[in-house]
Amino acid sequence: MTNLLWSDRDALVSSWPFMATPYPLLTTIVIYLWIVLKAGPKYMSKRKPFNITTIIRIYNILQVIACIYFVVTAHQHEFTFALMWQCVNVPQKNDVIPNHLMALNNMLWLFLMLRIIEFFETIFFVMRKKFDQVTALHCYHHISTVVLLWIFLKYSGGMNEVFIGTLNSIVHIVMYIYYFLSSFRNYRFRFISNLIKPCITVIQIVQLVAILGHCVVAMMADCNVTWMYALQILNISFLIIMFVNFYVKSYWKRNKSV
After folding, report:
1. Domain total of the chain
2. What's residue 1's pLDDT?
3. Highest-confidence range of 17-31, 77-91, 152-166, 181-195, by mean pLDDT?
4. Bridge partner list, 183
5. Where are the transmembrane segments (predicted)?
6. Alpha helices in the chain (DSSP H)
7. Domain range spanning residue 124?
8. How far is it, in rounded angstroms, from Cα 133 to Cα 135?
9. Distance CA 67, CA 63 (A)
10. In this predicted model, what pLDDT tens digit does every residue of 204-245 receive, in sequence order?
11. How far apart are CA 233 and CA 226, in angstroms?
12. What is the pTM of this model?
């Protein structure tokens, strides 16, 4: 791939599916909410839960493979966690974009597609009639992730975003391996699962705190497009509050009541 100017990069990114305008993504989100909040529950109200265990297992394995691929590829293209507390400025319109950064833009687009595919997780809940798992936290987390990813890829697409994607992928590798193993009805693992589930939530909270710190540093260092980091700080802060509240209600208070 040859070196590109930022204007060329913008034209290339806009040619990718979902990236020319926000309308395809917004339409997808509206359809997603309509299915999981209205059409899906209505359709399933008088039906038995679907047995889709095999589909879910395959889905989890594919997610693990995709996340591993993202992490490995990011490191192959000069990403390092040493960038965690640094600001890596995005090239300006008259700057040449290095080959490795353009390759990472491709990876960020694939990461966005992977997060959109995660909408199926909520649909799986509906198909299995696990309506209690279609929570405000669950839906907001999925939607805010793809919206912020779209904004960053469209207007930034630098190493700062790759850090978020790489850290998130590492956490998802752990999560989806756990989800895969928990799909087997093994009573011994079910006991271990009760110990692991709170840890998964803690890992997610730690991840959010790390991303929050990363965005605060980027904003204080006056990185390009600071308004996006301000938006992400608000989003991550809200998610931290929601995840902590979920942890307290699901594990802390439950353990105290036992």
Report:
1. 1
2. 43
3. 17-31
4. none
5. 20-37, 58-75, 107-127, 139-156, 162-181, 227-248
6. 6-14, 23-34, 40-44, 53-76, 99-117, 119-127, 136-155, 159-182, 187-220, 226-247, 253-257
7. 4-40+51-187
8. 5
9. 6
10. 999 999 999 988 887 777 666 678 889 999 999 999 999 999
11. 11
12. 0.87
Answer yes or no: is 249 within a domain: no
pLDDT single digits (tens) 166-198: 999 999 999 999 999 888 876 566 666 677 888
State the average pLDDT over residues 138-152.
95
| Residue reference for tokens 């993202």 | 70
Q: Go through 78-110 and write b for each residue having 16 or more CB atoms within 10 A of its CB, e for each that does not.
A: ebeeebeeebbbbbeeeeebeeebbbbbbbbbb
Closest CA to 160 of 72, 79, 70: 79
- For 129, phi and psi rounded to 5 degrees? 60, 35
Q: Which amino acid belongs to residue 12?
A: L
Q: Kindly state whether residue 233 falls inside one of the protein's structural domains.
A: no
Q: Is residue 77 part of a domain?
A: yes
**CB within 8 A of 88, min separation 6: which ones?**
158, 159, 160, 223
Is the distance from CB of 150 to CB of 112 less than 8 angstroms? yes
Is 160 domain-assigned? Answer: yes
Query: Which token pair is 235?
Result: 């989003």
